[in-house]
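The authors assume throughout that readers already know how a fold can be written as discrete tokens. In essence, backbone conformation is discretised, so a fold becomes a row of integers matching the chain in length. A single example would do more here than another paragraph of explanation. For illustration, here is how one protein appears when written out as sequence plus structure tokens:

…
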Amino acid sequence: MMSIAGVIGGALFVGSGSVIHSAGPAAVLAYLAGGILVVLVMRMLGEMATSSPDTGSFSTYAERAIGRWAGFTIGWLYWGYWVILMAWEAYVAGKILHGWFPSVSINEFVLMATLALICVNFFNVKHYGEFEFWFALIKVVAIVCFLVVCTAAVMNLWPTGEVSGMANLTAHGGFMPNGIESVVVAMLGAMFAFLGAEIVTIAASESKDPAGQIVKATNSVVWRVCLFYIGSIFLIVCLVPWNDPLMGTSGYGSYRRTLELLGIPGAEFVMNFVVLTSVSSCLISAHYTASRMLFSLAQRGDAPAIFKMTRAGTGVPVFAIIGSCSIAIFCALINFSEALRPKDVLDTLMNTTGMIAMLVYLVIACSQLKMRRKLEAEGKQIRLKMWLFPWLTYLSIVFIVGCLVTMAFVEEYQVLVVSTGIAAIVVALIGVIVHQRALKQAA
């Protein structure tokens, strides 16, 4: 359930609307391409994680396979990704709660949500898993109900509403009304929604039989991606005109619009509840992941030693949790400053995180390529093997690099590529300096 929760985020319920609005019904191809990449990346990560479960996950594997600078860089970038995401998820939660209780400001709800949900991570992974189980269950039930209702509508069996059948799949300009270029751009946006599936390899290192749990979760990625993402997006583009103005409205959501057109009463409240659950789940998992990555960096000497201290008897990295949560609270407090135009600040921060998802995928693929050959040379048994090695790994690397290059030539992504690229270079240089100092002290 934790791996399911990692895949299903607010981007599916809300962000998919803008993807569909830009690419038309062909948006389903964008999600299909992103889904295939996630399946391949998770298989690669699963191979490494079953051979050597570690709280640092791909950051640790990058250090072993590529070099310490790589582990340092991707570890800190990934930590930053989840810390920033916490602030964004808290803002969305605060906005929904403010809509229900207007007497309390969004800012107050943002701070309350951040403080309340990060407390979950002071418990061990078992209790964190309990919270994620119930949050994930709500999301899964909501999506399954959505799929059942929409399938009935596509088959002309739904009794109410304004839409039915599959006419919208080819109407309003055809299946690909805005050309292949729009699908490529939409694919880049859709792929960011999948980041989170890898959390299970981090959490599994604190559980019983980590290798077995990783195998189980990795093997289930295929049907989860097909059912939850590709299945629901296909039904939406069948039922809702891609050029519906509300599909492109920020924060409105493709799920909500579909339910409204199907005549479902209380669609807005239902979807706000589901989205609130989703962002709460993501906030918890974001803080869990950030704290464990900081803990792993400290264990390897790439972060202050205080962050590797744990609570006796539980193994919970208390100071890593406090460190990550402090940054999250600081980002949440940005909302109290009108001078900073809080939503603009958070939007800017969130836009820089998309590239990190691509860099994480690229590092996982390059690390698996080297570690597989190292494991085979050592004669170790590999419990979960990557399919068609090394060709599918090479294909994944080429595909990711191709996406990054394409982003550099798309106007709306150029600033993102430059800013994130500069940040990655700066962090890498810091990693090299830290490594060199450590070597001198050791000598």
Q: What stands out?
A: The longest helix spans residues 342-377. The chain has a mean pLDDT of 81.
